Amino acid sequence: MKKDYKRIGLGSISLLLFIFGLLFSVSFANQEAYGDRLLRFIKLSPWSNGDTGVHYTIFYSLIFYIPALILGYKFKNDFGAKLGRTLSLWITIIIILLSLVSIAA
């Protein structure tokens, strides 16, 4: 029986972009998110009101999630493309829904 392996290609970047988006937007342990650190480094505030309010880093993380989604759909036969596409889709939907709920509240 011959086993077919998926090749590494542009679709594989989808999973990598998802991981970067996750690292950019999620804080681990008692540390702030890497995206917060990066934004502070380039003299931008990650929050709308000092250290409270709207967390802009979540919206900046869409810079990673949306291309991951597009690459996952366009190159669906590459290794990791389906996982990157699916996870990016779910996170993007969650971000949009939470944004809409917070605007309505």
List descriptors:
105 residues, two-stranded antiparallel ribbon, 61% helix, mainly alpha
Strand-helix topology:
Elements: H1 12-25, H2 34-41, E1 47-49, E2 52-55, H3 56-60, H4 62-74, H5 81-104
Characterization of the model:
By secondary structure, the chain is mainly alpha-helical. It has one domain (12-104). It contains five helices and two strands, in the order H-H-E-E-H-H-H. It has helices at 12-25, 34-41, 56-60, 62-74, 81-104, and strands at residues 47-49, 52-55. It has a two-stranded antiparallel ribbon. Strand 1 and strand 2 (52-55) form a beta hairpin. Helix 1 (12-25) packs antiparallel against helix 4 (62-74), helix 1 packs parallel to helix 5 and helix 4 (62-74) crosses helix 5 (81-104). The termini are far apart. The mean pLDDT is 90.
User: What topology, given as strand order, has the largest sheet?
Assistant: 1-2
Overall tally of domains: 1
H/E topology pattern = HHEEHHH
From the spread of the alpha carbons, the general shape counts as elongated
Give start-end ranges of low-pLDDT stretches: none
Radius of gyration: 16 Å
Tally of DSSP β-strands: 2
Based on the structure, what is the oligomeric state of the protein chains?
single chain
Class based on secondary structure composition and strand pairing: mainly alpha
> What is the end-to-end distance?
58 Å
What amount of the residues lies in strands?
Answer: 5-15%
